[in-house]
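Run Methyltransferase through structure prediction, thanks.
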Amino acid sequence: MDEVRLVTGWIAEMRDLAGLTNTRIDAAFGLNGMAGHWTTQGAQPEVPHAAHWPKLLELLGVDELPETIRETTERLVAEKGKPGPNWFRRAITGHHETASPGQRWKARHGHRANLSNSARRDEPATEAALEWAGWGTALKPAAEHWILCRKPLVGTVASNVQQWRTGALNVSACRIPHADPRDLAESKSRNPGRAEPVTSAVYGTSRPQQRIDEAGRWPANVTLDEVAAELLDAQVPGSGASRFFYVAKSSKTERNVGCDHLPARVTNIADVPGSKGANSPRAGANRSGAAQNHHPTVKSIALMRWLCRLITPPGGTVLDLFAGSGSTGVAALAEGFEFVGIERDSDYVEIANARLRHELGPEAEIAHLYMG
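Sure, done. The structure for Methyltransferase is below.
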């Protein structure tokens, strides 16, 4: 894998020197996403096939490969599609009568695929593989955590907020609306806010009684998506428990708004329909199909607007150090804040700028938004 990244690192360096992006390389080949695998230093790097190299070198403005890169590439390309030595150490446990769905998909889309019957070898190839069979490296994601932090205070919270305009939460602007008039009336009946204090087993004696704010409930440090809200409500039918939490209503189409002119790409070329990757619980929300905004973890604009509004004072600036496809920026601009984003992936910068331009309008000037 280190040798593969040696080649992809060289391609990425030449791409940057030529002023290209992965999107432009994909467009030149009529591909959807392979350039990202040809240039990555992260997960799933891929060395281009021999047939791709002449055109790729022409695009990069390079006459020939450096000797080390050439020798490594030729050897890696020759090994493509061949099983490694551990494959033959496994016991044959059966035979595929037909090609797998993933193999058939690859064949239809121009990828090399062995469609003949083949042996299935499921037994561990080594003692270590046998010992650690069934182990993995991650759990299925069921929650995403947000960390709120601030520097140690000098003086009081009030003085810090007045001097630096940070360190407070805009509770009033982020209250959770009551579900309906009946919900509000029931809350008032349970919390009349009488003058006499009450005793609580949790909070102690002589506590003032809670008063209901008609603008909504105090925001919680847990937010839900629509599916989680439905599951919570279903646990106790009729309880409507999700009404105590903010529910991020994300649109299925908002990820591609403003990106119509960009080529569609599959998030992960290995996650083809029917493959193991496509069925993995960790594959992400964009694991099937193709999209112009191919970022694997696009955030809900509604959720990001709520979070920006919660911590940013009026007229403030939102800084996103890992801007991705620009959801935080779109949200910040929609709330009337300034936005500064930093993103190192040139493809995501292109997507983010397209989304930001759509939010601001075609005549808007975007400057100093991204440093990569």
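The radius of gyration is 27 Å.
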